[in-house]
Specification:
Elements lengths: L1 H5 L4 H13 L3 H14 L4 H12 L9 H4 L2
Helix pairs in contact: 2-3, 3-4
Length: 71
C-alpha cells in the first residue's frame, strides 16, 4: 500500500494494494484501490481486472465493463 501511495498513477500497483487489503479483511480499502485503477487507466487490462475484483467483493457501485456501458 505504501507503493500505491508513492506511485498513485500505476494501475498494477493499485491492483496489488487492493489484493493485500482484501486479504487483510479491509474490503473498503481494497475497493478504493481498485476504483483508483478505473480512474487512472479505465480502458486497460488492469481496469478489467479491477472491475472483476469489485464485483467479487460485491461493491455496490462496481461499474459495468465498457462493452456493457455501450449497450
Amino acid at each position: 500500500e505504501q507503493a500505491a501511495q508513492a506511485a498513485p498513477r500505476e494501475p498494477q500497483i493499485a491492483l496489488e494494494a487492493g489484493i493485500i487489503a482484501a486479504l487483510d479483511g479491509r474490503t473498503e480499502a481494497a475497493a478504493r484501490s481498485w476504483r483508483s485503477v478505473l480512474d487512472v487507466a479505465p480502458g486497460s487490462p488492469a481496469a478489467t481486472t479491477a472491475r472483476a475484483y469489485l464485483q467479487q467483493i460485491g461493491a455496490a457501485d462496481a461499474p459495468a465493463t465498457p462493452a456493457e456501458n455501450s449497450r
